[in-house]
């Protein structure tokens, strides 16, 4: 027995292709989910009551149900709504949907905890609540938000492996295909672990760079 | 009283409680156009709360506030003579008639001095970015900070920050400015530069309500002084009289206390 080095050598470039898909989906979901989450977070702090209720329900749903079920709901739900997007976009949207819920919570927590004097000063020059959120509180919250956001994005990358269940040919799925063909599960799962670890480490490193570059005032 | 001027702000029966503690017990006073109105009194007497009720950072429980002819915080429905609460936008419009200078400056830390002053004219008054920046630069010159436009609050001394805060208020062209102990968070050697700016504003005829413990400023600059204690107005009058021959025992006690510090 022993380690099948030949399969490993063969798998490395094949997995790299899957890793590209993982990166693509994760980045797209970070952008869509990140922007969506910021908007939802601001709405949850707004004076718009229906909007606040909506966000509360949204976040409760995202946190209260398994991601796997959310993925299936999006994958099988989109066609019901008449949208045929294919598994790549269905998977991207499912992850974005999930990520937005967590980002919304981070935004609500950080933006909501900016010192009260900032809001009072902005009110005293006649800013409306919406203007205060966007121009005064959000910009000051970006840096303090980064550690918590990084956690959510790391989770997002790791969770993208669940998209293998709807046949998105991402990292985990491409590994499973190799295992099925050559039956070298240990070698491949070990490689997958290394690939994910590298991606997550790079993300964490990048976020530290960004955090350091943002002014702390 | 400033001769020949008319009332700008009328406050009648202003009351405010926090929980079951009544902090303001039916306060009334009038501020004339162009006047410097100084508010003094022991700690906890309700001075800050009065200012905060004026520009609606706190909602008063009762009382009438009028700015010029306009009631503050509500609208009178002509037909039925009933009061109607103002929309958030209308309240914001009223709020900006009152400039507010905070004890701890409350500048926006992520913006430069110039942008701190320009953000209101641009976002609230709808001036173009260029016009707003020009107005901000002018106001910062006026408080003698022309050399520090591009600095962030963290790069400025306390006295400079408070002057930016004054410029920020001025740039909104308020009808009066409320100062809540504008110098009490400053190192002693920086107090005079803020007071000098306020003196200049008073001389230009800006209407100001100033809460302060700077008794020499009150004596020199105030047109009238109002003394508060325990949520009540104790007495009110020209500074010479309040400081020279205080009538109320609480005023005498307070003055002895601050002047012997
Ligand atoms: N938001 C609040 N909630 C509860 N109590 C409050 C609140 N704001 C003020 N108070 C209380 O109201 C009283 C009057 O406060 P205020 O700040 O108006 O006094 P002040 O005259 O400005 O005092 P100082 O000279 O110390 O600034 C104080 O006892 C204070 O504890
Ligand atoms: Mg006070």
UniProtKB/TrEMBL annotation, chain B:
It is a peripheral membrane protein. Keywords: Amino-acid transport, ATP-binding, Cell membrane, Membrane, Nucleotide-binding, Transport. One of its GO terms (molecular function) is ATP hydrolysis activity. The keyword Nucleotide-binding applies. SUPFAM superfamilies: P-loop containing nucleoside triphosphate hydrolases (SSF52540). PROSITE patterns: ABC_TRANSPORTER_1, ABC_TRANSPORTER_2. Residues 9-255 form the ABC transporter domain. It is found in: Cell membrane. It comes from the Bacteria. GO terms for cellular component: plasma membrane. This is Amino acid ABC transporter ATP-binding protein.
């Amino acid at each position: 027995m022993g380690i099948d080095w030949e399969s490993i050598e063969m798998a490395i470039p094949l997995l790299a292709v899957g890793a590209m898909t993982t990166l693509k989906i994760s980045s797209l979901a970070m952008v869509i989910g990140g922007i969506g989450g910021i908007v939802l977070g601001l709405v949850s702090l707004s004076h718009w009551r229906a909007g606040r209720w909506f966000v509360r329900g949204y976040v409760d749903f995202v946190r209260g149900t398994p991601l796997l079920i959310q993925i299936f709901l999006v994958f099988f739900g989109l066609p019901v709504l008449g949208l045929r997007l294919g598994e790549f976009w269905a998977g991207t949207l499912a992850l974005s949907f999930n990520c937005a819920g967590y980002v919304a919570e981070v935004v609500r927590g950080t933006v909501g905890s900016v010192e009260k004097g900032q809001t009072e000063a902005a009110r005293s020059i006649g800013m409306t609540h919406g203007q205060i959120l966007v121009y005064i509180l959000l910009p000051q919250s970006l840096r303090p938000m980064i550690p918590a956001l990084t956690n959510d994005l790391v989770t997002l990358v790791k969770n993208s492996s669940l998209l293998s269940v709807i046949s998105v040919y991402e990292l985990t799925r491409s590994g499973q295909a190799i295992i099925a063909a050559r039956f070298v599960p240990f070698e491949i799962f070990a490689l997958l672990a290394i690939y994910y670890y590298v991606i997550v480490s790079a993300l964490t490193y990048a976020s530290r760079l960004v955090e350091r570059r943002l002014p702390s005032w | 009283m400033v001769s020949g001027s008319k009332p700008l702000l009328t406050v009648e029966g202003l009351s405010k409680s926090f929980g079951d503690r009544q902090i303001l017990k039916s306060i009334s006073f009038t501020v004339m156009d162009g006047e410097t109105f100084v508010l003094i009194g022991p700690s906890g007497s309700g001075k800050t709360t009065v200012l905060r009720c004026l520009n609606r950072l706190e909602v008063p429980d009762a009382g009438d506030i009028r700015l010029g002819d306009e009631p503050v915080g509500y609208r009178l429905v002509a037909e039925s003579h009933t009061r109607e609460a103002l929309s958030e936008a209308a309240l914001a419009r009223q709020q900006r008639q009152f400039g507010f200078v905070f004890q701890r400056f409350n500048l926006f830390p992520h913006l430069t001095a110039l942008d701190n002053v320009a953000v209101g004219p641009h976002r609230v008054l709808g001036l173009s970015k260029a016009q707003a920046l020009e107005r901000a630069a002018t106001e910062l010159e006026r408080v003698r900070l022309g050399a520090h436009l591009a600095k962030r609050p963290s790069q400025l001394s306390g006295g400079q920050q408070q002057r930016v805060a004054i410029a920020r208020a001025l740039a909104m062209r308020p009808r009066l400015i409320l100062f809540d102990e504008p110098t009490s968070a400053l190192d002693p050697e920086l107090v005079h530069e803020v007071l000098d700016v306020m003196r200049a504003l008073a001389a230009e005829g800006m209407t100001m309500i100033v809460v302060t413990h700077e008794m020499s400023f009150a004596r020199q600059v105030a047109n009238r002084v109002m003394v508060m204690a325990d949520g009540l107005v104790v007495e009110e009058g020209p500074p010479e009289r309040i400081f020279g021959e205080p009538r109320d025992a609480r005023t005498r006690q307070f003055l002895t206390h601050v002047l012997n510090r």
